Amino acid sequence: MSHYHHYQKPTRYRSVYTSPMPREQSGGRRMYRQPLPPIRRKRRRGSAKLLLAGGSMLALATILVNPNKSQPMKPAVDICQKRVETTSVLSRAQLSQLLSVPERSAKEAVRKIVEAPYCILQPLEIRAGAEAQREAYPLAFDPQTWFVVLYENEEYAGYDFSFRH
Hints:
CATH class of the domain at 80-162: Alpha Beta
CATH topology of the domain at 80-162: Beta-lactamase Inhibitory Protein, Chain:B, domain 1
Number of strands: 7
Largest sheet: 5 strands, antiparallel
Strand order of the largest sheet: 3-4-5-6-7
Structural class: alpha+beta
Shape: rod-shaped
Helix content: 10-25%
Order of helices and strands: EHEHEHHEEEE
Radius of gyration: 39 Å
Low-confidence stretches: 70-76
């Protein structure tokens, strides 16, 4: 069985010069120690929250003032090079099926779901040495948004969304 001793802070004192009798009778002053009241320190409960909020606001202000310094500007390459089928749109069901097609599938797997694209976009170099062909399909439920299908060497390489068309 262990016994823990309670640590008691030492009492603080101040020296006080006084005498119960007048100075002439006592022959001088006496000094005694008078205990001081405990120091009450203010707790800083909100300082961590305040620091976090201030840092967050500073980061937000930096992003808002200068949003594109960390990211290079993306060139406007979502312009149709060739319109293939101007009535082609992508339904929700077709979009759902396309999202489930595994990457590196044959181009024919995509063609089974959708026919001709709305347009063919400018090719991009996604990986070093591999040029990606891109086909765009406007969404039937949001024509301003295009679903862009990427192909590399006649294989499905992925997709992207292009907004504000």
